[in-house]
Amino acid sequence: MTAHCISGSITTLRAHVDAIDPNAVLVLTGGRSFEGSGAAPHVRSALAGRDVTFLHDVPADPTLEDVTSAVAVFRSASPALVVAVGGGSVIDLAKAVRVIGPTSTSPAAFLRGDHEIERPGPPLVAIPTTAGTGSEATRYAVFTVDGEKRPMAHRALLPDYVILDPELTSSLPPAVTAATGLDALSQAMESIWSTRSTVPSSSDARAALGLALTHLPSAVHDPTPESRSAMCTAAHLAGRAIDVSATTAPHALSFHLTTDYGVAHGHAVALTLGAVLAYNAEVTDDDCADPRGPQHVRRVIADILDLLGVATPADAHAYLDGLVGDLGLEPTLAGVGVVSSEQRRALAASASPMRMATNPRRFDEESLEALVASLR
């Protein structure tokens, strides 16, 4: 799968459709973004004359129930092509539907990890309308199951075709641009320090981080075609990077903030990003989780400081917290409602073990509670 961020590339959808020549198509979309982004007329034109089923208004952070409902639509329509037009939630749902739909197994079995993904279903075209999640470039899809965030992970979840058109992000409100952009920035930074990073993933992550740091403020406050295109590229590169490296502690802590406090995902991740960077910078021989050793971890943290243009981990922590506020989002845990000691202990306890495992410095219960308690 290759993709390039090119204005107007939504018009290439017709060529993909004609090459596949499906008799039936399932299209998943978000809410207002389908029409507001300008994608709608192009999608309808590309699919004209075919049997098309639309699944509109995919919610943010889909649940098991949403997956079950969407799979039922898939099984009724029997599509030979799936098209996802929207943000990360839309693309995640399409990924799950296209692998679960052709089976006779319940979605719950897949999402709870009781049934393995065996093969991809029909081709999937992913058309992001946000610049943030990078879902179009990853083997992951995340859903809320039994009140907890649970990931699916398999190469069969990767879309077959990706159309990256920065013009589709031009109608995003500033708060959404900020939150999704912070997701891309955080993914890039976490990928650089992840225990599973490789030379190619680190190259993608560094490029993504540089683009996000340079262009995210403009994309939020004074968007231009250049800044929109840069953030589109940053999000895709960050997605490619975490497809290899996975994410780490800030993402592990983010899901509780989204599920229980309603904080947008990228915003939730950014609330602990600076603190985790400072924590990782203090890695020792005794608590290093990266087999390349603490010197490697310190070196990649130093690389991140250079990209941020700061001298110390403390400066980086302050810079990242300040960036969240400068983008118009609440920069503190207290400000989003995580105030009491009990609430903060619950946040620490919620951290996803899978994502904590890739953090380069190990946390124990005490150190994680201390980090969360220290935040404003």
Would you kindly provide a written description of the structure presented here, covering whatever features stand out?
The chain has 376 residues and is of the alpha/beta class. It has two domains: 9-167, Rossmann fold, CATH 3.40.50; 173-374, Dehydroquinate synthase-like, alpha domain (Up-down Bundle). Helix content is 53%, strand content 10%. Strands 2-1-3-4-7 form a five-stranded parallel β-sheet, with helices on both faces. The chain has a two-stranded antiparallel ribbon with strand order 5-6. A hairpin with a 2-residue loop joins strand 5 (140-145) and strand 6. The termini are far apart.
- Which radius of gyration do the C-alpha atoms yield? 20 Å
Largest sheet at a glance? 5 strands, parallel
CATH topology of the largest domain: Dehydroquinate synthase-like, alpha domain
How far the N terminus sits from the C terminus, by CA atoms, comes to 42 Å
Number of strands: 7
Question: Helicity range of the residues?
Answer: 40-55%
Which stretches of 5+ consecutive residues score pLDDT under 50? Answer: none
In CATH, the homologous superfamily of the largest domain goes by the name Dehydroquinate synthase-like - alpha domain
Widest β-sheet, arrangement of strands: 2-1-3-4-7
- From the spread of the alpha carbons, the general shape counts as globular
| Count, helices | 16
